[in-house]
Each structure stands twice: as structure tokens, then as C-alpha cells.
Write a structure and sequence with these properties.
The chain is of the alpha/beta class and about 475 residues long. The protein is about 40% helix and about 15% strand. The longest helix has about 30 residues, at about 140-170. The model is unreliable at about 470-480 (pLDDT under 50).
Length: about 475
Amino acid sequence: MNNVTIIPAQDRLSGNYGALKKLRVAAYVRVSTLSSEQEDSLENQKQHYEELVGNNPRLDLIKIYADQASGLNTKKRTSFNTMMRDARARKFDVLYVKSISRFARNTVTTLTAIRELNSYGIETRFEKENLTSTDPSTNLLLSIMASMAESESISISENVNLGLKYKYSRGEWSANFTNFLGYDKLPDGTVVINEEQAETVREIYSDFLSGMSLEHLAKKLTAEGRKTGTGIVKWTKTSLIRIISNIKYSGDVLQGITTTVDVINKHRVRNNGDAPQYFIENGIPAIVDKQTYLLAKAELSRREQMFIEGKDVGGPAIYSGKYPFTRKIVCPSCNNFYNHRNARGTYVWECYGRIHGSCTAEIIKEEELTDAVLKAAMDLWELQPEIKMNDVPILSSKDPEDQLIRAAALYMENSFAKRTQDFLSGDKPAEYDPELVRNLVEKIVISDTDIFITFYGTDPVRVERNRPGRNTVIGRKLKRN
């Protein structure tokens, strides 16, 4: 039998291993929050590894990766993800971590990351547990310890949530004031109104309830140089919707709007009764009154139901399209709206039911419509009728949504009727202006002999057609714009 000499494995960090080769070392450190104590802990961890590597000539410190984030999920741990990318590029040979809980509090994340590091030939060392990923028995211990760290983190999260519930039940609340337009938080915790920013908030509510579309309002605020909560001068529909639907601007606070359904992945969903909510009346200084807030929020829902869901919920149509007659002309035959069309270079309006169905309503030239609107506006100005206004009920946050939407419809009808009042108190129109249609005309109905134009807050004005009868000149097949 041949002589066999067994050469035992060596610690790669010992002085005898690969004497001519320095090992590239990295370290990963993490804290959950950036309080002064946690910040000191982070710096102490960094200093520890700088000294550890500095005292060993066999080691070369490549980088220390540091995160301030929860250990349950790696999505928001920038340095952790950078570390894994560097590992794939083989930028270090050994990774030092203080403990398993600092590496990750999620069992799956811990084992997956360590196995990936092993596949690149990178050894991971956990100092507190005295474990190394190169030891075959480590996987079992890591699974147990990582599971314990995960359970501990879930328990901490549940305790935090319980503490928040007690806090909310006492009428206390919390919010992120970093990007909260209209408010400042003083060092003692007092919330005060930032009057300069509050003017922007009030302008948003006022313009929206005057009938301005979200697209138009966003362009207006951007052109005025108004800053958003994040300090930029670029407004979007989304940023406006968030302000209009934020109950805090009315002085009330609602906590528990969303709820966590997955502690590990921090996944939150809208709370539809799955968890308690806490309504704190007059918990913050109000920028707009409660009636204004409830009307604006209901108006958001009204417009959504009208334009997205196609429901008839009453009130004026708020439309930002480029054609002023859009959603104004109602077909007397099938009750559909007329659409803008191009008939061999002539702009006309044709019933949607005729385009896509069997409606036989006539096609009308845009020129005839503009002439009719000017004539009707002049007649209305001469007549000076009394403008009809609705009684809008005082609303409560406890009112059902359909009642709130009906009130919003009545309020918006009043807003548009006020435009007619302003028009009548001004100069008599001398020429056609598309804004007459956009701002004042509620509905147009066409018959063989007349065009009936209803201005907001008035009865229909009849305009006799210059060329009565059916339009037979324009054919059925028209070119789309």
C-alpha cells in the first residue's frame, strides 16, 4: 500500500495560507434607524473592521458596505445590493459581518445570499455566532439562527404596530412632514401652517371647484412657478389628486388608511376594513374648510365616474380636449354626443351613434354651430335672464358617497352658472370665441329647423337655422382626424 499523507485544511486568514497572496476583504454593516445611538453603532462597526484588517498584513480591505434600513427586505438596502453586484464581479474574497441579524432578518434572504456568495468562492464570516460559510455544518445553524432573527424582527414590528394603535386611540398621530405642502413641524412637535405654501393649496381647491380640469390646473401652476411639496416646479395630475384627496387639509386626520399584509416584504394595501382606522377630528390646523374638502373629493369621484366609467352622475362635463364642442352636442335621436370630424377639408360634427351604429341624425358643419353660439350669446346678453342657482347641502364625512357626488354636481352647476353671471355683467360679445362654448354652454340640441343652446343656469336659447332641413351634401363616410 502506498504511503498517504493527509494535509489538513487551513484557515485562509492564517499566516500559513497562500503566503504570497493577500486576501481581499469586505465588510457589511447595518443599522435599522439613523438615531444618534444607531449612528454611533454604525461608525463603531466600521472602525472595528478597519482595525481588524489593518492589524493583519495578510488582509487588504476593499470596501465597507453600510446600510440604514430594515433587515427584513433587501429592496431598499442600496449597499447590500451593491455588495452582491461586486461579489458577482469577484471584487473580494472574504466578507465579514457582525452577526446574522445585521446581514438579514429574513431566513430566505440570508440563505440565498450566502449560497450565492459561496458559488463565487467568497467566504462569509459571522463574528458574533463564530460561523463561516465554508463550514459544511453552517447551513443548518444559519437556518436556525436566521429564522430566530426573522421571528424577532416580526415580533418587534408587531410591538411597534401595537404601540401605534395605543397612540392613535389617544388622539395622537404621526406623518412625514418633509414633503407635506402647506405645513411645517416645529422642533417641539407643533404643526403650523406654512402660509406661503398654503396659498398654493387653497388655489388648487378653488380652481378645481371652479371647473378647471386637472390637466389645465397642472399647466397653470407650473407656469406660475408654484412649487410642489418636494420643491420642484413641475405639477402633474397625480400630485394634484393627492392634495385634493388629503383629508388633513380640512383639519381632520385619518390614521390606518393602509395596512401591512406582509411584514417581511413591507407590502401595504389600502385598508378596506381589514384593520382598525382612527379618525381624529380637528387634529391639525385646517387650510381649507371641511365643506370645500368634501366637495372637491366628491368632485374627483364624479369626474372619474363620468369620464372613466361612463356613468351619468349629473353636473357639467369637465373636459380639456382641444375641440370646444366636445360633449356639448346631444343627438336628438339616440342621445349620444357628437364627435369632431373632417369631411374633405370641412370640419363637421357627427353623432357617435351614426359613426358606430345605425343612427340617422344629420351631420352639421362647425361653421353653423359657431354662428349659432354667437347669435345665442348675443340674445342672452340682451335678455339678461335671472340665473338659476342650486341649494347645496352642508356635507359631513359620514355622508354616503352617492350623496356627496350629488352635492358636488349641484355645486359645479353653480360654479358654471356663476360664469354665465359674469358674462352677462360684461360687454356684449361681438364675435365668436371658443371660450364661449367651453365656459358657458351646457348643452346643444339640433332639430331640422332650430338649434337649442343651453347656457349654464339658464333655459335653452332658440336659434333659427339659416338652412333648415337635412344636410344631404356631406356623405356618410368621413375621414377621421
